[in-house]
Design brief:
By secondary structure, the chain is of the alpha+beta class. It has one domain. About 65% of the residues lie in helices and about 10% in strands. The protein contains one helix and three strands; from the N terminus they run βββα. A three-stranded antiparallel β-sheet has the order 1-2-3, with no helix packed on it. The protein is rod-shaped and about 75 Å long.
Length: about 70
Amino acid sequence: MLSVEGHKNLYRDEKSGAIVNCDDRSYSSYINMRNKKRHEKEELKRLQSDIDEIKSLLYEVLNKRL
């Protein structure tokens, strides 16, 4: 691989011409951030599901009282 001028962590693959980032810290940071966001999305989906269930139960209780 050839180093990219002006960028210490970037290299060009000679066969494909692709630019490769070899900065392990940045990659690890990106993976951690991505996993955290996925976890937050899953948590929001669970909360929405719980809210929908509570609403459904409330409607059921209200309909039985009337």
